[in-house]
Design a protein that fits this description.
Length: about 120
Amino acid sequence: MNILKDKEIIVENVKYCDSLFSRAKGLMFSKELKDTEGLILVSDNESIVKSTIHTFFCFYSMDVLWLNKDLKVVDKKENLKPFKLSIKPKKPSKYVLELKNGKSKDIKIGDRLTFIE
């Protein structure tokens, strides 16, 4: 899956996680993401609780974007450190996009992204 902003590809290799197990595992025990890689955690509806994440057993910093059902960025955290518990978005979201540290610098809250298979 590719993710675009304004018809420009942000990431090309995005792993889509919509099962309970894949969402819970996330990036735990993985190698640091490459510039072209990302992970999208998908909930069945918009929620703060269901889009709360952690960075346990993620041994590197990352950027995180929270998107609503319309793929609009509703919150953003840059340079999120490893081994943090309960990282919540400010608004309910359906998608959590985890990216290589520094990859979200040109993305703002309110931007709309596009997913392409």
